[in-house]
């Protein structure tokens, strides 16, 4: 299974501390992202959830210092004394120094000391002149009056000059202490800034409202209300925007402008806020843009923005099931155990994880790379191993109904995650909503379903196989075909189950009618006038949608059986598409379908030969791979009991 022999994961080497070495299965994507960052290109990562998009970006973020020199900088906001609604934001190279905390030199016209002395002298001379001729005894009073005149004069001059200056420059009564510049952001190493696409304020910045009695206090000057955006914080680094599906169009335009101009002003985003009247100068924001989302999300992006993204990388959702890749999966298990502080896993447990990775990939030949899902299963299996609470819920009772703990402990009472714990999480579907819905449906509905496996051969009755929704659970579908004579000319095909399996039905009826008319089937021949027949097709008790054409072979057999009146054996279920030449073509979900046939107790399951590489479990049911319809016919028709006249 793996290139190393071990009993438990404790014996395996420690995972690399570097996140970049921990990413598995996405080697090409990692290389492209690293090269893109080195060359300052913009990137979009697309792929299914949990394949490692954020992990790759985070990993690149860890090693950003490897990408050459970086000049640290800091961002300050200053008041604009000419227009307070237009605060000034500056990006300054170097480290932030405390002396910035000084109050800026304001343009107050405070009188100089020479002017004051001159004023005083003038005041004294004036009072001397006024006091001339005053008798000696009034001299003390005269001196007091003189000093008072001097004081009042000086005071009035100072006051009017201060008030005049501040009024001219501010237009309101701001406390001069509020005019200090403020430090908005300091960046000492190359930044990786992450922001969700829907969070406009976080992405582009904003100006806080200045409410009465609220925060910030009333009268806080605009430069102290600036919130820097992620695009500005990512200056000289990387801006990582995830959830691109949710990015409003107007934000896309701003980001486009920022990418083009490498600068963008901040203004108040809420039109009802006092911040809306404020706008800064354009603030430098020279960043590499990395975005991520699911494949379909890309259609939400406007073409000009998408054009600006140089690398568009689609991450893989599966890798080949090779020894090398199984080893990588083992490395992933060890990482998850270490990173999440889980109990060690036994060798069998690791093999079970590989088996589930095959199931989730839909093939024995592949391993899933939807590793978040796999990581969640491992974490839950650890919980099952840890405590009996969850084990009890998931059911672990012996035949007499007594709780039977499965937790495997070694001599030192150490807990291990075993194959049983993992299987339990997988089989009960607690890691997936869809699987639980499908399981509940099957559990509640099976007893009402009229399926009699291995019954007597029947004309026009066959068991097909389907996968229920996105739950990854297969189910058996009974298909019934009946032929009636019609008074109207032409063959009438009636699907009495509505929209179900439209593709399969159209294809199968065309093919079966052709084959029956041509009489080339390896079956007893019969003259049938197809010109006045009504073919009724029912997918009995099937209520969920059946897409695709994987029921074609089943429907075709049922129509041929009904037209020729030859019974079909009932010990098999069949899945497979057909082309018009009668070749059996591959289908999806083969493992889930085989599971379903097994669950209902069928002895045989017929599948396309092309799908044999995908089959994981071969035990418990006879699996018959077929390439053509001619191969199927002798396997399924009960030729011993035919009552029709031969031509
Ligand atoms: P995405 O962004 O594609 O939805 P994440 O990067 O958030 O997925 O992956 C979630 C978690 O799943 C990671 O933290 C890691 O534990 C695991 N994981 C996903 N992809 C990988 C990978 N390629 N290699 C290793 N671990 C992975």
UniProtKB/TrEMBL annotation:
This is Archaeal Lon protease. Belongs to the peptidase S16 family. Archaeal LonB subfamily. ATP-dependent serine protease that mediates the selective degradation of mutant and abnormal proteins as well as certain short-lived regulatory proteins. Degrades polypeptides processively. It holds the Pfam family Sigma54_activat. Its EC number is 3.4.21.-. The chain crosses the membrane at residues 114-131, 138-163. One of its GO terms (cellular component) is plasma membrane. One of its GO terms (biological process) is protein catabolic process. Residues 456-639 form the Lon proteolytic domain. InterPro entries: AAA+_ATPase (IPR003593), Lon_arc (IPR004663), Lon_proteolytic (IPR008269), Lon_Prtase (IPR027065), Mg_chelatse_chII-like_cat_dom (IPR000523), P-loop_NTPase (IPR027417), Ribosomal_Su5_D2-typ_SF (IPR020568), Ribsml_uS5_D2-typ_fold_subgr (IPR014721). Homohexamer. Organized in a ring with a central cavity. It is a multi-pass membrane protein. Keywords: ATP-binding, Cell membrane, Hydrolase, Membrane, Nucleotide-binding, Protease, Serine protease, Transmembrane, Transmembrane helix. It is found in: Cell membrane. It comes from Methanocaldococcus fervens (strain DSM 4213 / JCM 15782 / AG86). GO terms for molecular function: ATP binding; ATP-dependent peptidase activity; serine-type endopeptidase activity. Its main location: membrane. Signal peptide: none annotated.
